[in-house]
Amino acid sequence: MGTSKSELLFQNAQKHLVGGVNSPVRSFKAVGGHPRFIQCAKGAYVEDVDGNRFIDFVGSWGPMILGHNPDRVIKAVKEQLDRGTSYGAPCEVEVELAQQIKEALPSIELLRFTSSGTEATMSALRLARAVTKRARILKFEGSYHGHSDGLLVSAGSGATTFGVPSSQGVPDFLAKNTWVLPYNDVEALDVLFTTQGINIAAVILEPVCGNMGVVEPSKEFLNALSKLTKEYGSLLIFDEVMTGFRLGWSGAQGLFNMKPDLTCLGKIIGGGFPVGAFGGRRELMEQIAPMGPVYQAGTLSGNPIAMSAGLATLKSLKSLKPYKTLEKITSDLAVFLRNEGKKKKIPIQVNQVGSMFTVFFTSGVVDSYLSAMESDTKAYATFFNSLLEQGVSMPPSQFEAAFVSTEHDAKVMDQAKKIFSEAFSKVARAL
Ligand code: PLP
């Protein structure tokens, strides 16, 4: 089947939308070609406007853990539609979803819903600065926490730990309040805290990184974070926008048995609708307006459609208990991919945690941004495009996580494996 309708739509889209897309990575800039315009999605599959079907490992960048259009979620959304789409006033489903989240994540005693993950992280940091009366924050190179000014910052050159803007339009004076260290670097963390700990309001962490591709934290790194933030009175913020309800019912904090001061959520808790949330200990969250002096608000925050979709998703996850199966299916795939790489003499590293995975085209261990950057992005582009041609949709960038859903059953995965194998052959021929 062709791609002419997608091509035409993309040409037209570029006349009206910046770069033809509403979020940069969708543009295929990193892998070449043009994006496929999707007309419908169900289960493990998405279908483009030319009628091509793809086994989907993007899953709308994480939310679709139950696959696309799950019946229970769609039913809840339809029922809510009949009752109204937005009230600008409290409604019951917000409370129900909050209760469900708290039950899963005991570190959250009180929470606030937002309309995106970006708002959640931005607001959590404002709160951290307010309660600690400190300005500086610490993040890790290669992480992504949304696109607010203070977080679009990467590491400066050389020995400096001051951040530099990673986007034009972010003023230096803001970037300087964000320190950036390499992920998993315990020594650097120790040095920064020893010299500057009393100035750090919060450390924000992707507890399993997805935004440089999947990178796991070491035990030592997590222990050091926990110890140092406590010792110096800085807040530890887990950005679980991606990992929340993805890596387990209690997210990454459940997996690692940790209790962050604040947690940010998004993606899955909205069941495919725009959503975010941040929450934590009661005495911290009580500083948010209207209870406290830290202002935070949103016209569509707690939107009843998003809340209904999120609640139905969490209820399904609670009854399905899919996490062991998801882990097994995904680790089986990871093993298969590693073996294929070996067989075809392609240097790859497959990082996988739960239902998240990344195939890095490099021979070295990937445990930081620097090591991820060793990857051969041209090989990834060949891999990606070969997969797409054969009916598998992967993230259009080397440095992203792929996601497996409960709809990726053995039959789907067998089909996907054949296609992955073909794509590796193509990469091997191109090397
Ligand atoms: N935090 C993490 C870990 C994310 O992966 C993302 C988005 O991918 C965000 C924050 C930002 O969320 P949103 O895109 O909903 O603003």
Explain what the structure shows:
The protein has 431 residues and is α/β, with parallel strands linked by helices. Helices cover 39% and strands 16% of the residues. The strands form four sheets. A seven-stranded mixed β-sheet has the order 4-12-11-10-9-5-8, with helices on both faces. The longest helix is centred in the last third of the chain and has 21 residues, at 323-343. The radius of gyration is 21 Å and the shape is globular. The model has no long low-confidence stretch (mean pLDDT 97). The structure holds pyridoxal-5'-phosphate.
Secondary-structure map with pairings?
Blueprint: H1 4-16, E1 38-42, E2 45-48, E3 53-56, H2 71-83, H3 92-104, E4 110-114, H4 117-132, E5 136-141, E6 153-155, E7 163-165, H5 172-175, E8 178-182, H6 186-196, E9 200-205, H7 219-232, E10 235-239, H8 251-255, E11 262-266, E12 276-280, H9 282-285, H10 304-320, H11 323-343, E13 349-353, E14 356-360, H12 369-372, H13 377-390, E15 392-393, E16 402-403, H14 410-430
Parallel strand pairs: 3-15, 5-8, 5-9, 9-10, 10-11
Antiparallel strand pairs: 1-2, 2-3, 4-12, 6-7, 11-12, 13-14, 14-16
Helix pairs in contact: 2-10, 3-10, 6-7, 11-14, 13-14
Bound molecules: pyridoxal-5'-phosphate (PLP).
Pyridoxal-5'-phosphate (PLP) is lined by residues 61, 116-118, 121, 144-146, 206, 210-211, 239, 241-242, 266, 276.
